[in-house]
Predict the 3D structure of the following.
Amino acid sequence: MAANVLVLYYSSYGHIYRMAQAVAEGARSEEGTEVRIRRIPELEEARQALAAQPAYVQAQEQQKEVPEATQDDLRWATSVAWGIPTRFGNMPSQVKQFIDTLGGMWMKGELEDKAAGIFVSTATVHGGQESTVLTSLVPLLHLGFIIVGTPYGQNPQILVTDGIGGSPYGPGTMAGGDGSRQPAESELTTARNLGSRLARIGTRIRDLRQDVEHGQQGDVQQYDGQ
């Protein structure tokens, strides 16, 4: 069975959107993988507050054809890549509100044993590249996701002292103080690698869980027949 990779993101100014496209490219490089890119809805208060900024308006226009995320997208996925821009070293309220709607899925265990990775964007190299990933892990672990990172062995491009985004915890990019910086090729490479890794691992986790469930059913049938 093919992997189903959901690239789920929020992006005010387009940097995370570009990274999301790279994650999707990486996932599609794995044979048979199906990919959906979905955006987390904007909050109306934020839309009104940012509407006077041309960069925000332009970025939102570029994303208008991307469907908004639904819980059915999460049910469909074997793996989920979460695109999360930083807000003071943490996830933005848009992402938090979306996660807070998943209580019903949490109660039913619908997200358990799905692979998940996180990619981020900050203004500067010290703006929360790692803390945004680490703090975002908490609700994902509560929901039952199995976390997938971007280790050095598969990502030598992050094993540097240069000012680029990304870490073993997940891909990252930097927008610059004025938002003019765009994702570097090395950052996009890490994003692609996350996508391909999520496709591979998500499929194996699903197959393993199915094998376990089938084994348990076989044990019950054997017991009933004794």
Observations:
- The chain is about 45% helix and 15% strand.
- Strands lie at 4-9, 34-39, 79-85, 115-122, 146-147, 172-174.
- The mean pLDDT is 93.
- The helical segments are 15-28, 44-50, 54-62, 71-76, 93-100, 103-108, 129-143, 185-225.
